Amino acid sequence: MTLDLIATNVLSVPVLAFVLGLAAAGLRADLRLPDAAYQAISIYLLLAIGLKGGVALRESDVADVAAPVIVSVILGITIPILAFVALRFLTKLGPIDRGAMAAHYGSTSLVTFTAALVFLESIDVSYEGYVATLLAILEIPGILVGLLLAGSMRGTGTSTRGWRASLHEVLVGRSVLLLAGGLVIGLLSGPAGFERVEPFFGGLFTGVLALFLLEMGMLAGRRLGDLRKAGFGLVVFAIVFPIFAGSLGIVGGLLAGMSTGGSMVLGVLCASASYIAAPAAVRLALPTANPGITLTASLGMTFPFNLVIGIPLYWGIAQVLAPLIG
Questions:
Q1: What one-character-per-residue DSSP string does 14-67 give?
Q2: Which of 221-230, 262-271, 307-316 is predicted least confidently?
Q3: Structure confidence by residue, pLDDT tens digits, 205-227
Q4: How many independent structural domains does the chain possess?
Q5: Which of 143, 245, 249, 287 would you label with 315, given CA atoms 20 to 30 Å apart?
Q6: Integer CA distances (angstroms), 217 to 25, 32, 308, in order
Q7: What global pTM score does this model have?
Q8: Spatial CA neighbour of 19 closest among 296, 276, 304
């Protein structure tokens, strides 16, 4: 079953676009999206997800959303701590780099999340519309906990100025601002308001995602050459830890009363690693951290694994666990 789903996922247009980007990077082809187009597509995806999430949130019962939100906050705090500890045993990284890695793996990947939604829709599996709210919630605590761990373990902590700049970067950065703003707009406008813009924010969504994944494939492809320098322990972490964290997220979703599809999406959020919001925050708060290590792991290894194999794998895990927990 899982192998069939992997094949279905791999043959989808967005994933094939990602593979094309990998191939282009491997061939050193002169292919890349203009920076303005990349920025515009990022804004489009974030706002579209926020809008749809806000509309779904308006139609949801507060009691149904409360437990998943609480579970998401707990996971957002727990996962970076577990990542920090796991890296202590698997690698020779110092506390600053381990904290930076924990911040990346405690946060989320918008593109992996979006690909998971497209995957579920392709196999006609429903999920709670408010999962975009959980994405916005999980974006913040993981980064802050990772920075806190790095600061506390080295004994001096990050500077107050660094913390303020980093917190500001997280809270008003593009990801959180557009997601939260989209949620509010969708919540206020409701289904009737979204219906007017649905042809743009709904009908074009998968095609725009394919363009974005083409660019992400090229970025990831440029990082594959760094695998030789990463070390075996870091490779193991980048593949195995997401499976563990994803399973933890699935269990948390099921315990919170979410559907199998919704629990799978929460699992994907927990399994993903940030390569947009986290690097910006880490750069400000932990200037001595090595960005090459964190981006090689998150973008060069975890992201391709999750996109091609992880998403259908987490769906398979959710199907197995749902009867046991639900």
A1: HHHHHHHHHHHHHTT-S----HHHHHHHHHHHHHHHHHHHHHHHHTS-HHHHHH
A2: 221-230
A3: 888 888 887 887 787 777 666 66
A4: 1
A5: 143
A6: 8, 10, 12
A7: 0.81
A8: 304
